[in-house]
């Protein structure tokens, strides 16, 4: 059957509601089993500009599938998008998914020039995994306990399709050279405390160090205002403070989204001033964060990304029980090339 592919429109709310609440869709995606029609109408009326959603319709106009590209928000990952796909239960196996995949990949390649399309699939959704494999998606790893489904935290298969031009993908990245080597200063005593709004300028200065920002997804030339906004967002943040009040390290945890089925997941980030790396600051920050999460917060899975060539950071995370779950190829832009990252995670409950 030939399906008509078009952009999702506000008038599709009722049909999209039926699709999103289909039992098979709920089971194999991150949808909730009970959703109000009003909430779906609000979604399609205010669809975010960074999400491009297409629908598949039968010749008589029935909406039987929906798929889309969720563009990554960090600017150093603007070459990436997360693909999602849903097909109504009674239209499974009739070519709807294939029609949407062809349209989405054409859109990604020829109109958005995306380099990396990624997705996650519940481990036992074999039909979807086979579909993605047919369209060039390769397995990159498994995220353990990723998706809450019917009371069980299920694993997710992580897959991606790359479209880099020659020389763009640093498949075997070498350590990035700093603009000018920093001499290691004498180890300074420090104490830990919660970050405050008044720390914004000092944290921005820490992130301005090339050896720090290049190993995160931060941009060069960070400004105090943006860090003040981040510190005011209500996430758990810690700083390592020297006796003179200078900030030697910064760490935080945050939730990657607001989906209730991912509410057990938190992400982690740690940065230490280059001149104080190896002095125990990262160890102390990570110990404090894990204690807080384990004893006082509801998260069950703590995850992070780290560039594959950042050996000291990887060793620190492995020391604290983080396991390598996936190699995300070409995940982050650094010094003009797309570098691989590791997804690492550990259970905290």
Can you offer a commentary on this structure?
The protein is α+β, with helices and mostly antiparallel strands and 349 residues long. The chain has two domains: 4-164, 3-Layer(aba) Sandwich (Aminopeptidase); 190-347, Gcn5-related N-acetyltransferase (GNAT) (Aminopeptidase, 3-Layer(aba) Sandwich), CATH 3.40.630.30. The protein contains ten helices and 15 strands. It has helices at residues 13-20, 23-28, 37-45, 96-110, 126-134, 200-207, 210-213, 224-231, 281-296, 311-319, and strands at 4-7, 51-57, 63-71, 80-87, 116-122, 138-149, 152-162, 169-170, 190-194, 236-242, 247-254, 265-272, 301-307, 323-334, 337-347. The strands form two sheets. Strands 8, 9, 10, 11, 12, 13, 14 and 15 form an eight-stranded mixed sheet that branches. A seven-stranded mixed sheet has the order 1-2-3-4-5-7-6, with helices on both faces. Helix 1 (13-20) packs across helix 3 and helix 6 (200-207) packs across helix 8. Residues 174-182 have low confidence and may be disordered. Residues 3-164, 190-349 form the N-acetyltransferase domain. Its EC number is 2.3.1.-. Keywords: Acyltransferase, Transferase. It comes from Vogesella oryzagri.
What brief labels describe this structure?
Aminopeptidase; elongated; 7-stranded mixed sheet; 2 domains; alpha+beta; 26% helix
Q: Give the domain tally.
A: 2
**Outline:** elongated
Q: Provide mean pLDDT, rounded.
A: 94
CATH architecture field of the largest domain: 3-Layer(aba) Sandwich
Enter the CATH topology name of the largest domain. Answer: Aminopeptidase
Q: How far apart, in Å, are the first and last alpha carbons? A: 48 Å
N to C succession of SSEs: EHHHEEEHEHEEEEHHHEEEHEHEE
Largest sheet: 8 strands, mixed
Helix coverage percent: 25-40%
Number of helices: 10
Quickly give the structural class.
Answer: alpha+beta
| Counted beta strands | 15
Low-confidence regions: 174-182
Radius of gyration: 22 Å
CATH superfamily of the largest domain: Gcn5-related N-acetyltransferase (GNAT)
Output the CATH class name of the largest domain.
Alpha Beta
Residue share in β-strands: 25-35%
């Amino acid at each position: 059957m030939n399906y008509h592919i078009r952009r999702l429109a506000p008038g599709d709310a009722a049909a999209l509601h039926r699709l999103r609440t289909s039992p098979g869709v709920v089971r194999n995606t991150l949808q909730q089993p009970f959703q109000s029609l009003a909430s779906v109408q609000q979604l399609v009326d205010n669809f975010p500009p960074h999400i491009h959603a297409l629908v598949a319709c039968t010749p008589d106009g029935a909406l039987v599938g929906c798929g889309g590209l969720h563009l990554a928000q960090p600017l150093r990952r603007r070459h990436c998008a997360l693909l999602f796909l849903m097909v109504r239960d009674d239209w499974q196996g009739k070519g709807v998914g294939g029609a949407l995949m062809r349209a989405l990949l054409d859109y990604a390649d020829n109109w958005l020039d995306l380099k990396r399309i990624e997705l996650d699939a519940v481990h036992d959704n074999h039909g979807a995994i086979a579909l993605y494999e047919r369209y060039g998606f390769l397995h990159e790893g498994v995220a353990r306990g990723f998706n809450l489904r019917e009371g069980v935290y299920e694993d997710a298969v992580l897959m991606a399709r790359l479209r880099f031009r020659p020389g763009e993908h640093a498949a075997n990245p070498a350590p990035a050279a700093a603009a000018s080597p920093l001499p290691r200063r004498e180890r300074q005593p420090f104490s830990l405390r919660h970050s405050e709004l008044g720390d914004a300028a000092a944290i921005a200065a820490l992130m301005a160090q090339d050896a720090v920002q290049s190993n995160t997804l931060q941009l060069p030339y960070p400004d105090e205002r943006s860090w003040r906004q981040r510190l005011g967002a209500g996430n758990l943040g810690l700083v390592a403070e020297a006796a003179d009040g200078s900030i030697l390290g910064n760490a935080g945890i945050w939730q990657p989204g607001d989906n209730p089925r991912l509410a057990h997941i938190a992400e982690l980030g740690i940065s230490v001033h280059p001149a104080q790396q190896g002095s125990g600051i990262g160890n102390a920050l990570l110990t404090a964060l894990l204690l807080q999460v384990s004893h006082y917060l509801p998260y069950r899975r703590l995850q992070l990304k780290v560039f594959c060539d950042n050996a000291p950071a990887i060793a620190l995370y492995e020391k604290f029980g983080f396991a390598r779950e996936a190699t995300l190829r070409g995940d982050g832009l650094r010094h003009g090339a797309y570098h691989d990252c590791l997804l690492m995670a550990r259970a905290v409950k």
